[in-house]
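[Q] Does anyone have a clean structure-token version of this?
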Amino acid sequence: MQRKMVHYFFTKKIIFIFFLFSYFKSILLFNIQSFKGFLQNAKSKKIGKPHKYFDPDQIYILERKISRKLGMKKCLISAHCIHIVFKKFGIENILHIGISVDGKKESHAWISTKQKKYFLSRNDEFNETMRIS
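[A] Here you go.
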């Protein structure tokens, strides 16, 4: 029982550090590169070896905590970070980008895995225009 807790503690720290680097890289790419270059970076990530200690729901919860602390309000950057981290830890996922159904000039990004969708709070109001796996 004690051994499992140690793994959980270190697993959380590894994910936290990887998210920080992913956020800084995503923000940098988003501000410097074109939108096309930003998306190309998301497409170029290879899926890593699956690990039994990395639960997608726990990764998502940790990302939400980090994004709140950093004051991140852009769904595209958050979804890009989760996409990168999920791929790094062997979790197959798809990054979706959509535009508003009602004709407003709004967009939204969300992530889906085989089991669940993340950032789902608003994506029923958006038509999917792009899918990156």
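[Q] Thanks! Anything notable?
[A] Residues 78 and 115 are 19 Å apart (CA to CA).
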